[in-house]
Every structure is written in structure tokens, then in C-alpha cells.
Design a protein that fits this description.
- The chain is mostly helical and about 270 residues long.
- Helices cover about 65% and strands about 5% of the residues.
- The chain has a two-stranded antiparallel ribbon.
Length: about 270
């Protein structure tokens, strides 16, 4: 919060253009990483203990998550198009600078969220109260965080199911990301999955009037499905279920092999 206020006050105009204040979020990510480093030092732990030392395995997990996130958004988008629910037209105002600033923003924003919700706090909570309770607790906080951050939307302010879904959608995603973090012992996989999802969603599902500028494509909802969010929510739930099953399959331990991460407490 301090980083956001200070950077927002003193950042040059170029840093806040196109509604993508990525330098503000990037400074926040650096400060969060610094707090994490301080906590590790006070505990006598290392970056390696947290699975944060880059190596081929972590890079592979990140790339797999990135590809998975893109596929999990692209798949439902394709099915919605085939079902006549949604189609797209090119966004004529989309530019290369907007692509660069938007990508930088999503990288920084996802890094902030993963450092906070799937990093140090999740691992220490899992050690203290158990992995399932830790995942659920931080997922609930993650849902509340999104409710506060995008609660200014008129549809959200009206209450009802829209208000509920604003928190429930991120909560479900946070459970998937939390399981990925604990089963791999690192934020590499959830970081890639989260970034691939958000970046692709920006291009295909950002409607005019949303907080973020419309991406490469402007979504157009067919008349018979206008005002009905059910196809989108069902698609999201299916995608998250597929992601959870894929993570469980990827991180499954061979029989008789002792788990090497906190995933031992997960079903």
C-alpha cells in the first residue's frame, strides 16, 4: 500500500498511461520480496528452502503453468464461440505500447499476488495449522481482497450473485494456485498458471468499461445471452476443475516414495 501511494504520487506520466500503472505494482512486488527475504533471514532459512532458487525444474514448472493458463482461457473461449454465446472483433485502438504496458502490468500484478498469497505466508501457515486450512484461509482472504479491489463496479455494488461471484471466483482460483504451490514447493507453477490466465483473459474477455483497457479483441455477447453470466461461470468452474486435476496428476508421488513438500497433507 505504501509503495502504491508513493509511486502513484511521484510517478511520471508515462508510468500511469493506458490505465496500466505497472511501475506502481512493480515497486510493491519488490517491497514484498524484501519483506520475505527479511523474514527468511530472521528464521535462518534460505531462498532454496522456499523453492525460489531458479533452476531447470522451476523454469519448466513456470512454462507449463503459463501454457496451461493460456489453454484454460482459450479453451472455454473457443467453446463459447462455437456455442454462439460470444464472438470477437479486433480492437482497432490496441497498440504495441499498450501491449507492452499491459503485459508489464500483469507480470507485476500477478507477482504481487503470488508473493503474498502463495509465498511465505502460505508455507508458514501450512506448517502451523495444516495445509488444507492454510489453503482455504488464504483463499478466503484472496476472495475478499478482490472484492475490495474491484468492488467499485456498478454490477458489484448492486449486490446479489454478482457480489458473491466477485469473491467466490478468485477464491476458487486461489485454492487451485495454493494447491499448486504446496504440491511443488514453489510459486513457479502457480505464478505461470496465474499469469497465463490473466494475460489471456485480458485479450479475450475484457469488456469496454472494465478497469483494464480492452485487449487485442473486443468481446461481443450474443443478444440471447446478454445479461446471463451462467455460461461464463460454468466455463470458469470447468476450467478450474481441469486445472486442479492436472496439477494433481503432474505432482503425484510414486508409490512408496516419501513426499518432499508440504503436499503430504493434501488429498
Amino acid at each position: 500500500m505504501v509503495a502504491a501511494v508513493l509511486t502513484g504520487m511521484f510517478a511520471p506520466a508515462w508510468a500511469l498511461q493506458d490505465g496500466q500503472p505497472w511501475p506502481v505494482v512493480a515497486v510493491s512486488a519488490l517491497l514484498i520480496a524484501g519483506v520475505w527475504a527479511l523474514c527468511l533471514r530472521l528464521e535462518g532459512r534460505s531462498w532454496a528452502d522456499e523453492g525460489l532458487v531458479p533452476d531447470g525444474r522451476r523454469l519448466g514448472q513456470f512454462v507449463a503453468g503459463l501454457a496451461g493458463g493460456v489453454a484454460l482461457v482459450g479453451g472455454p473461449a473457443w467453446l463459447l464461440m462455437l456455442g454462439g454465446v460470444l464472438y470477437w472483433q479486433p480492437n482497432q485502438s490496441f497498440t504495441a505500447p499498450l501491449m507492452a504496458s499491459g503485459t508489464a502490468y500483469f507480470v507485476a500484478a500477478v507477482l504481487v499476488e503470488e508473493l503474498i498469497f502463495r509465498g511465505y505466508a502460505l508455507r508458514r501457515l501450512a506448517e502451523g495449522i495444516g495445509v488444507i486450512k492454510a489453503v482455504v484461509l488464504l483463499a478466503a482472504i484472496f476472495g475478499g481482497y478482490h472484492l475490495l479491489s474491484i468492488g467499485s463496479s456498478p454490477a458489484v455494488k448492486s449486490g446479489g450473485t454478482e457480489l458473491l461471484w466477485t469473491a467466490a471466483g478468485p477464491l476458487i482460483g486461489a485454492i487451485v494456485f495454493g494447491v499448486a504451490a504446496l504440491r511443488t514447493g514453489s510459486i513457479a507453477l502457480p505464478l505461470g498458471l496465474h499469469l497465463g490466465w490473466n494475460w489471456t483473459q485480458w485479450h479475450f474477455f475484457t469488456l469496454p468499461g472494465d478497469d483494464n483497457p480492452t485487449g487485442l479483441w473486443t468481446p461481443l455477447i450474443s443478444a440471447q445471452h446478454a445479461g446471463s453470466p451462467a455460461p461464463f461461470r460454468i466455463g470458469y468452474l470447468v476450467a478450474m476443475t481441469v486445472a486442479l486435476l492436472a496439477i494433481a496428476a503432474m505432482t503425484r508421488q510414486p508409490r512408496g516414495r516419501r513426499p518432499v513438500t508440504l503436499a503430504a497433507g493434501l488429498p
